[in-house]
Amino acid sequence: MPRPRSEEAREKMLSAAAEVLLERGVPGFSLLEVSRRSGVAKTTILRHFPDTRELLLAAVDSTVTYPDPPDTGTLRGDILETLRRIRPNFSNRRANAVHHELFAAMSRDPDLRRLNREYVAANHPSPVMTVWERWRERGEICADLDFATVFEIIDGPFTIRSIVFPETLDDMDLDALTDRILMQLMP
Prior knowledge:
- This protein has ten helices and no strands.
- The protein has helices at 6-24, 31-38, 42-48, 52-61, 75-91, 93-108, 110-123, 127-138, 147-164, 174-185.
């Protein structure tokens, strides 16, 4: 059987890594198990991911789609469109389960938390950050709101629902949520 192309091998290892994470959690996550399930040699995995934690973070990341930040020309329009674009990530049960495993591990491991922050910043700037900067430049939001606060205000409702009431994510009234978010952001 011919060796898989590099991108094909990468996809196989990321898919297998997400499965291992779901079944065994972070403590049971192993390079050997990812290699066994994916059919990709351990040496190939190590060429892509020299550290097991990098593989873990890339596997979690592979379950998410990073939407382009909207630019509707209005604060309300941008918020509503941002919510529409990010909701599918929270509605994806597999992605949620993988993220919850990672979040639980990060609560116990500050080094993993730091690595995750660095990984996300280097690989996927948040669409919320892009629109936050635009809103600040246009003077549409309170000048003293930092990015972390805006991120919590926008992603928070989805995060909580994905944990407590995941079956209601698709039924969220995004127009009403947008109005509540606007009350928190506007000067």
